[in-house]
Amino acid sequence: MELLLLSNGKTTEHPGLLGWARQRVQALLAARGVNQIVLVPYAVIRGDWDQRARDLEESLGVEVVSIHRSDDPVSAIESAQAIFVSGGNSWRLNQQLHEQGLIVPIQRAVRERGVPYVGWSAGCNVATPSIRTTNDMPVCNAAVLPALGLFPLQINPHYLDASISGHMGETRDERLAEFCAINPSESVLALREASLLQISGEHIEYWSVRGEGYKVFKHGEEIKEYQDARPLGALTPFTAKL
């Protein structure tokens, strides 16, 4: 199984879609001989799906075909060399994955055929067991919680622990602590901007272009921050690797 789970798609310091992680993404595609990407853009609500495909193609230098252009989305996944799932709204994305009948085909493509899966923001959210730790509003009525379950832990992308002046609502840490209180058997991995998890077979790596760490939230335990993937070895079926 080959997964790249990214907190976000763009940064101010690195131009282009996935520009901050471009070398890692391109290395993965080159290692697998990928010359065409199938893009799942359903999370994009206020943007143009064709433009998202063009942006990705321009950034990575690989042909990108958006799944919305296919008459048979399931067949597009079944023949895909690589599956890229865009950021946007996790609720809308997960709804469309279920309604288009893509959950099982993506699971089979990734788990059985070893097709690389690259997801950022909402695309990262849906790679986990559910979208319960998304930051997005449930903008659609058909709110479905179970997701692809390719990665065994819940992830909170775009994690931010900075204090915002004048903000009187719960902090992100408090919201994640609430999740863990309701779901004490589950852990949440909080990914800051410009950071990612890369899973290859039984190995997992963590990387941040800014050199920042990630946090793990679990009910009844102190919130801890880590700089590498070794602590995840105790939380996932994967063998942690630097």
Give me the secondary-structure topology.
Blueprint: E1 2-6, H1 22-31, E2 36-40, H2 49-60, E3 63-66, H3 73-78, E4 83-85, H4 90-99, H5 103-112, E5 117-120, H6 122-125, E6 154-159, H7 172-182, E7 187-192, E8 195-200, E9 203-208, E10 214-218, E11 224-226, E12 239-240
Parallel strand pairs: 1-5, 2-3, 2-4, 4-5, 6-7, 9-12
Antiparallel strand pairs: 1-8, 7-10, 8-9, 10-11
Task: Write up what this structure looks like.
This protein is α/β, with parallel strands linked by helices. It has a single domain, classed as 3-Layer(aba) Sandwich (Rossmann fold), CATH 3.40.50.880. Helices cover 26% and strands 23% of the residues. It contains 7 helices and 12 strands. The chain has helices spanning 22-31, 49-60, 73-78, 90-99, 103-112, 122-125, 172-182; strands spanning 2-6, 36-40, 63-66, 83-85, 117-120, 154-159, 187-192, 195-200, 203-208, 214-218, 224-226, 239-240. It is globular. The two termini are 18 Å apart. The mean pLDDT is 94. It comes from Aeromonas molluscorum 848. One of its GO terms (biological process) is proteolysis. Belongs to the peptidase S51 family. Its EC number is 3.4.13.21.
